[in-house]
Amino acid sequence: MDNRPSIDTRQSHRASVFSVQSGASEDGIKMTPVPSPQPEARPHVQNDRLAVGDRPPTSFSFEHDDNALTANGHPLQTGKSGKDFVPKFYGSIVDPFKQVSGRARFKSDHWKSVQVGDFVRIYNEDQIPADVVVLATSDPDGQCYVETKNLDGETNLKVRQALHCGRTMKHAKDCEKASFVIESEPPNVNLYQYSAAARWTQRDIRKPEEPGTEMAEPISINNLLLRGCSLRNTDWVLGVVVYTGQETKIMLNSGITPSKRSRIARDLNRYVVYNFVVLFFMCLVSGIVQGVTWAKSATSSDFFEYGSIGNGPAMDGFITFWSCVILLQNLVPISLYISLEIIKTAQAFFIYSDTFMYYDKLDYPCTPKSWNISDDLGQIEYVFSDKTGTLTQNVMEFKKCTINGVPYGEAYTEAQAGMQRRQGIDIEAEGAKVHKQIAEDRVRMLQDLRKMHANPYLHDDELTFVAPDFVNDLGGFSGVEQKTANKNFMLALALCHTVITERTPGDPPTIEFKAQSPDEAALVATARDCGFTVMGRSNDGIILNVLGEEQEFTVLNTLEFNSSRKRMSAIIRMPNGKIMLYCKGADSVIYSRLRPGEQSQLRRLTGEHLEMFAREGLRTLCIACKELEEEEYQTWNKEHDLAAAAIVDREDKLEAVSDAIERELTLLGGTAIEDRLQDGVPDAIALLGDAGIKLWVLTGDKVETAINIGFSCNVLNNDMDLIVFKIEDDKLESAEAELDSHLEGFGLKGTDDELQVARKDHSAPDPTHAIVIDGDSLKLVLENQLRQKFLLLCKQCKSVLCCRVSPSQKAAVVRMVKNGLDVMTLSVGDGANDVAMIQEADVGVGIAGEEGRQAVMSSDYAIGQFRYLQRLILVHGRWSYRRLAETIANFFYKNIVWTFALFWYQIYNNFDVTYLFDYTYLILVNLAFTSLPVIFMGILDQDVSDKVSLAVPQLYRRGIERKEWTSLKFWTYMLDGIYQSVICYYMGHFLFAPARFVTGNGLTINDRPRIGVFIACATIVVVNAYVLMNTYRWDWLMLLLTAISILLIWFWTGVYTAFASSLQFYKAAPQVFGQLSFWAMILLTVGVCLLPRFAAKAFQKLYLPRDIDIIREQVGQGRFQHLDRYEAYVPPGKLPSAASSEVSQPAKPQHRGGKALDDDERPMYPPSVANTGTTHNPRSQTGSDGTDYTGHRRSLEQLPRPSFDRPVRPSFERMRDSMDRIRPSFEASNDFTSAALLTRLESSHSGTPTRRTLHGSSSLR
After folding, report:
1. Within a 10 A sphere around the Cβ of 303, how many other Cβ atoms?
2. Could you please report the per-residue DSSP string of 388-415?
3. Which of 410, 535, 642, 1183 could join 1187 via S-S bond, C-beta 3.0 to 4.6 A?
């Protein structure tokens, strides 16, 4: 395919897209208008053109009344306020004065024929053949839906928009009359960003003699269909090609995924080299001895040999060397690699087939994607986990909010339950009490909502925001001011978003929201439940049903969220003509942009509420607004259009322009969304901790939220001292001083010697300390001069929480631990922001969740829920590691025995490489005689069952310490093999050494092939019996395979020697097997060979037992019989959480036939008498009831309440009381309490745009 240097779309120069020849119409396919998927929304069509009255306002029109036109040819509109404003005019790339033939037609063609600049028409269900800019679609609003699972793995449909300037195009003749140029950025790998601009000359139909006006429209990723996607729910799309072939984004991203090899596989090469060195010296000795022997004269060889092959000692030795390589080649275990591939494939199949790791909700089993690293799962020491969607469900539920200083919402979260558990409160009883109250409030709220407005889109079972007092205030119970505030707040939620609505007719009808972030969908869904329903989008606006009244709001601009802005804004023209900017984002980001000197009381109250929400484990968000003057907006919009049309640094320019308008904001309130923990997460984390695995949480959430989630999921506990690491001045010197002070508390200085000691120490640290660090401070400690000190400090802590970290920082942390401590690491995440750390870790695990499949596609193992990680690691990982380690050692052993038996024979024939065994034995030894037992040892061997593996997670620590595969084990098996090879050979040698061996019929059997049968059969029996001895699980299959392998050599010898073609080997089987000495020698050889190994095993198990030996003995005594009652062992601590929001849902019938746990199996939660800990952080003091933990301010009881009387808010009062009873050490830090931070935070971005602000939490991601 030819690569074009430019992307010029002036179609008068193209001939491959449509033909202007007379014959083209016969083969061409005429493009006729296809009706929209929603017939009722389709505009009236007359004579292939839209009727004037029904034509979309974004299309270029030529028939408007001249008296109503403005200078640009677009009609004036008047708002309810009486002010005239000019709707945005987009123009059209169709030149009405361009002279064309009118014979253009579309035709079908191959993908390879598509070139840059071609017009293409794509139908529903078609794949996109190239990267295409959308000009028009079958939808009158210019929308189309694409499925991008081939690109990022996401199965939810994405919305793409047609360019406004191209939406009038419907036919091939419109393409023929189009005249425009696309200025595009060069091809790049970024799937989520594209910068280009369409430029054309806009002609005025009223003044054809004038040259026209130059116009441009920016093109972003939302206007681009990428190759590999599929068109869905859209009849047709018309577009122009910008990238083809290898320059498309999917092809540029089809790079090689980082290759991972297991640690054992990397170590294996070294041991194979050792064997190769041994083989080299064996061959070298043979060559030298053979050469020297042939160099001697006056020997018997002069009379019995017919000359040498090399015709000289040197050449004879050289030939003997290479002949010996062929004879003894089994010493280098090439077949071992094939056997390991078979074993690892079987292990991957077992992992995939494990029904206890099958997630039925998504119909998703545990899927191995890199099946060759299963043994690494048995050596994991550090697990790095994302929080949102990994530890939590990423199913957002709107729980609480604060509006105009008034908190709303009732909830009992898992973090709150965990906090009360640390206080010694019975959370089961407390949870039942609270959920009963919430259920009553839910009923009352639903009744009040239906009295206010018969909302057909409100479904009782979907309501998550339970706040009857909010409904009362929305109806005016607390005054006009609060009523207006509540209404404006809900309008902000309903207008400031990018969600797409899907209406499903029925009784009652339903509306579903498709959003890129679950947070946005939760916010819009709550607005719907409260009567502010997003009905859909019009050409340039949003249609809302506001308490039964349908209104249309024009969306002028959407300033989208990104990780650096931490906010998003929507500029809306209200029905009355006013222009409003609604902004939502992280609390500190919004606070820094508020109008200075105003709303001080509201700021303080909102900050207190947001802090309390965060301590409950909720994700907080701030909402603000600003009214814009028409002139102010028009001036700013010109700058925005220029930035949007830029090709170079478009994102930076847009961010600067957006920052300029997002100032002088007015605070409306804040939201709190719960991202509930996944089922079984606390127990899974506790189980991994018992196994000696250290868990680090790397999240983008704010510190308070992460800490409370840490408490609720067993990452943190109340007995830990939290080291809250925060550097205020962003200086390396300050960070180093902070690190030194903390290290001093552990008696460390951060030296190289201390690091070497830490690399050798794989024990779990005492559960006394945990580190909490934010992204800004993490950036400092990851510098080269501080990294080692920070690593040593983290090594002393049970848990590490890194908050506000970027994807690159996640990967950097994993790299620091993996390389710094030389440990095996595992990263687990569910989103695109986790891909970097998943690929960096030794083992990457992706969770198929709500954020698509990017993490799954980049992972080594994909699971449906975090809790399956415990079975993947503690069961399959431990089994795989132990099986492979034992298999490899036994494989080296059996090759040593066989090869050295051949080598010892060379001593007695001058090392002339004469085969002691028949050549077929050499071929079949690794193929049939010894392969099955050692392979099935690696596939099926079990020391203990899966239930016991989970019941005793401490068994996993042997893998962390890498004791199953060591150099000592390798050389032990090698020496054992050499010893047994000596016994196997010399037993046969000395059997025949005293005299000639004559049988009863007078024939001798002391020739080389028959002596080889004696030795080979004994060696095969010894090797297979040795493998069986090292196998833990002696079931019928293993015994059968061992017996078959042993009997195969008898079978082969009998069959092969029955034919005369075996030459000297003819009739060897009946001659040898008929001798009593043969069977006696085998019995004696097996006993002498295996006796040392048997004695060593007996001594070790009796006097130096390992953990597994003790547990196996207890299993035999029936200590674990109670596990048989479970289908798969579940730790006793896994009980239903009292904080589960499902408790407050309408009651559903449940089966209660299950058997209760015995008293000795029930979890015990002793009440904590120490509510705080002492931390080494100098700024974090031990908390108490009197601790002034947020600076010099009053406690929550002393805060002024709203002037009007309000009903009691149980959830708010309950949480406030809990906060006063307990002040954990992290809460005592002024630096990590939102209210204190926001109170001190000035509106820096409202005045000076260059001032750096602190980052807060954002529910947007």
Report:
1. 6
2. TTTTEEEEEEEEEEEETTEEE-----HH
3. 1183
879-928 pLDDT, tens digit per residue, is 999 999 999 999 999 999 999 999 999 998 888 888 888 889 999 998 89
Residue 989 pLDDT level (bands cut at 50, 70, 90): very high
- Residues 1013-1024: b if buried by 16+ CB within 10 A, e if exposed: bbbbbbbbbbbb
Measured distance CA(780)–CA(788) in Å, rounded: 12
631: enclosing H helix or E strand: helix 630-644
**Residue 529 is a catalytic residue:** no
Give the Cα separation of 553 and 579 in Å (integer): 10
Nearest to 880 by CA among 407, 359, 262, 58: 262
pLDDT in tens, 322-337: 999 988 888 888 888 9
| Residue 15: how many other CB atoms lie within 10 Å | 10
> Residue with structure tokens 């897209």?
17
User: CA-to-CA distance for 172 and 178, rounded, in angstroms?
Assistant: 10
Task: Note whether 486 and 519 are within 8 A (CB).
Answer: no
**Amino acid present at 272:** V
Active-site annotation holder among 118, 139, 316, 386: 386
* 216-263 pLDDT per residue, tens: 888 988 899 999 888 988 899 999 999 998 898 888 866 556 778 889
Of 38 and 622, the structure prediction assigns the larger pLDDT to: 622
Beta carbons within 10 angstroms of residue 940's beta carbon: 18
Q: Measured between alpha carbons, how far is 930 from 1024 in angstroms, rounded to an integer?
A: 6
The answer to whether the CB of 824 falls within 8 A of the CB of 376 is yes
Q: How far is CA 702 from CA 311, 397, 708, 1031, 1232, in A?
A: 83, 18, 10, 51, 9
Q: Average pLDDT of 566-588?
A: 89
* Structure token digits, residue 109: 């063609």
Q: Which of 36-40, 789-793, 1209-1213 has the lowest mean pLDDT?
A: 36-40
Q: What are phi and psi of 672, to 5 degrees?
A: -140, 120
Q: How many CB atoms lie within 10 A of CB 1103?
A: 7
As a whole number of Å, the CA-based R_g of the chain is: 38
**What's the pLDDT score for residue 711?**
77
Degrees to nearest 5, angle at CA 776 with 710 and 738:
85
Using DSSP bridges, classify how beta strands 224-225 and 131-137 pair: parallel, antiparallel or unpaired: antiparallel
66: exposed, middle or buried (C-beta count within 10 Å: 0-12, 13-18, 19+)? exposed
Beta carbons within 10 angstroms of residue 523's beta carbon? 30
DSSP classification of residue 466: -
Alpha carbon distance 143, 137 (integer Å): 6
Q: Is 269 exposed, middle or buried (0-12, 13-18, 19+ CB in 10 A)?
A: exposed
| Distance from C-alpha of 452 to C-alpha of 475, rounded to nearest angstrom | 7
Taking residue 205's Cβ as centre, other Cβ atoms within 10 Å add up to 13
- For residue 29, is pLDDT > 90? no
Compute CA distances 437 → 510, 512, 1214, whole Å.
Answer: 28, 29, 12
Total Cβ atoms within 10 A of residue 540: 19
Q: Indicate if the pLDDT at residue 835 is higher than 80.
A: yes
Selected residue with higher pLDDT from 730 and 451: 451
Contact assessment for residue 579 and residue 83, using Cβ atoms and an 8 Å cutoff: no
At residue 1213, the pLDDT reads 57
